[in-house]
Amino acid sequence: xxxxxxxxxxxxxxxxxxxxxxxxxxxxxxxxxxxxxxxxxxxxxxxxxxxxxxxxxxxxxxxxxxxxxxxxxxxxxxxxxxxxxxxxxxxxxxxxxxxxxxxxxxxxxxxxxxxxxxxxxxxxxxxxxxxxxxxxxxxxxxxxxxxxxxxxxxxxxxxxxxxxxxxxxxxxxxxxxxxxxxxxxxxxxxxxxxxxxxxxxxxxxxxxxxxxxxxxxxxxxxxxxxxxxxxxxxxxxxxxxxxxxxxxxxxxxxxxxxxxxxxxxxxxxxxxxxxxxxxxxxxxxxxxxxxxxxxxxxxxxxxxxxxxxxxxxxxxxxxxxxxxxxxxxxxxxxxxxxxxxxxxxxxxxxxxxxxxxxxxxxxxxxxxxxxxxxxxxxxxxxxxxxxxxxxxxxxxxxxxxxxxxxxxxxxxxxxxxxxxxxxxxxxxxxxxxxxxxxxxxxxxxxxxxxxxxxxxxxxxxxxxxxxxxxxxxxxxxxxxxxxxxxxxxxxxxxxxxxxxxxxxxxxxxxxxxxxxxxxxxxxxxxxxxxxxxxxxxxxxxxxxxxxxxxxxxxxxxxxxxxxxxxxxxxxxxxxxxxxxxxxxxxxxxxxxxxxxxxxxxxxxxxxxxxxxxxxxxxxxxxxxxxxxxxxxxxxxxxxxxxxxxxxxxxxxxxxxxxxxxxxxxxxxxxxxxxxxxxxxxxxxxxxxxxxxxxxxxxxxxxxxxxxxxxxxxxxxxxxxxxxxxxxxxxxxxxxxxxxxxxxxxxxxxxxxxxxxxxxxxxxxxxxxxxxxxxxxxxxxxxxxxxxxxxxxxxxxxxxxxxxxxxxxxxxxxxxxxxxxxxxxxxxxxxxxxxxxxxxxxxxxxxxxxxxxxxxxxxxxxxxxxxxxxxxxxxxxxxxxxxxxxxxxxxxxxxxxxxxxxxxxxxxxxxxxxxxxxxxxxxxxxxxxxxxxxxxxxxxxxxxxxxxxxxxxxxxxxxxxxxxxxxxxxxxxxxxxxxxxxx
Length: 982
Fold this sequence. Notes:
It holds the Pfam family MGH1-like_GH. This protein is of the alpha+beta class. A hairpin with a 7-residue loop joins strand 9 and strand 10. It is built from 17 helices and 55 strands. The longest helix has 25 residues. Helix 3 packs parallel to helix 15 and helix 11 packs antiparallel against helix 12.
């Protein structure tokens, strides 16, 4: 199955709700089914699960009826264990036309596709009378007539809110309630927009006494807050599950599950959701969920010597993912955002218990990440971008074949996460009387903030680079993401001047801000070309802090519109149209978002936080409550036009009940936000910070708004046809460096291969991460200043928009020392195996198979380094423990380099992530490098164990490598390479 785009750990139960099995006739009497094993229709419409079994109907025919939502759905026919796969053509995908017969080949091959424009029932019919060539026919069933239902019938009042669409049409959301005066209302909510998933065009929900409610004079605004509250309660579960854990069986946990299609707890989703709003409203459940994402070692596991006894225990869990999880991905530190918010909301006694546990887990994680993922040269942490974890969505295409290069890049969002973890750990250590640790973490945090601002800030763009290019390049790239920019502002990494620039410069489309910019060509909608409500909410937080009215208004509009028309707080939306699924018949491979869930946890947290923190201005602090509403002139005119006051009822914080009332001034023309004139607590004047000790059991906070302040108005707007890959909003494909060589004079030269870029493209050349030539044409280029070990990379740039590509894979001209495992200088307890000669090119050269057990040894030496300089040591390997987007079994080892006298000259973690698996060829790749400045002479290297996420107890029930069969940190080793660089 070609599912490398998907993170199957999260996908296992994700889409089951999209494909509903319909009633089927019984098997014909006396007609035995001809197939010995059951067959299933499995595809994108049912999460590649087994919900849709083909039922034998007699006379050699199997059928199943499935209700399928719009989309271009990949599918196959196969057994439950995939021991058989039936496709139309084993050599190429076929798009199946309804009502047409197709002979199937009972052998594995690429997926077939069914394009569905409108939700409908489809019958899949398989005729197996000729078992060697079964016949498939897919038929669209006519929808049975459904009696029209008016969910608003009999209700006293109906509010209708129209929204203009990207194509000049109008979609309308309607709301009603049978009793507007009820203390707890029930709402009916309908939408004219075609929904993402099968189901009615309306829903209903009821306010609950355990959740705050709003009375604003605007039924729609009140209803949408109630919707978010109801979805928070739906996500509050007694047990969680995922097909890859615990055999798919339920796991008891009073936790927050991640959404309608995600029934597990994921570290980053939970943590951002908690920070945005959930921790304030349900801190106890947030703490349960955060504790679920902590783990110690498995029984019997002895940590690597480098992971000392002080910092080897309880730590944060990095979920399954790219290259086999941590430390390819290191944004497990996002846990700190949720923990900090929970600590502010917990009563004192509960806070003390969780604070101690949080410091233990954070401390262990920070110390180990310092060993495994900290680059001392740049002062930054390596690792994948936070949440942007589908490699082809936001990385260069060549990265898919070189996950070690993804691992060595530095991401803005992830580094800001490390900054948050360090500042929180410093605070907790100081509170708990650990002055030395507090000082150390504070110093690390200060240095990291400085490094982010030095290494990732792009003055010409007025924004931070989302990520650097990987090793042998390292330049900050002109790629941008809204989460990273916003978190930099929210955490204080960005100062006031930089914050203002970011808010003014980050591009917004007609429907809001995309999560990345510019967009990736030839890539479907998911992170690429998408808005995610939780990221929008962080943009709103940043806009309120920076006083940017235009950016805040755009965020308010995005969040309210998305929930209104979709009847839920969705996972994501296409950014130029605002659609939950943008159908593109001309380019069906680009349709998306490819996955989308209702009541996505961080979207729910985002909406609740928007209302409580940004509209009503209430947030918790360690000492009490901060009061700082950010109500804009537009929000006053459009959302609260019918009222002079808005009220938030039944907000309970640390056991104190609060009623928050905002007195609104007269609506004004123009743009700006309203100044807070006065705040009272139970009738007595107070400031914008209210101490916990002043709060009784029941409290009323009244906020009177005054003059309209202009604030910041600057915003960058872009627009394009959502069905085109316009240069205005897309970046070009990355080019290639080819034919790199030195000439007789020692000059380095190469060809810039343009990768099908149009004529208005120019190219920028980087040597060792520094720009050395700008806006040159494709073709040959010569460097007359090339050093002994120069490394080159090229980026493409559209001349008109200025949008840039990712960098090409870097190429180096320095000397290279390659040593195969068959070399006499290699010593290991495992003997080389595998073919040599002509067969080695196809099936892999001799190697140390499955090297990496705790007792395994590997050393190489003496290695003669001919010239002093900077050298990079890498291992040539293959890791086929899992696919490149899955698992917990990325190779993580400790490499030590000693000189002839036995002195350690360099040591550290090297990563050997999962690599592509090809049945016809074993693609060999190189590990992340260990950098060393060496003198000419002899050296010896030694490889020993470190650890990966499979060593943690929390992964002991994982179904794949590193799970139920024990920890997995093994790879096939082919050799060692030393590369001379600058």
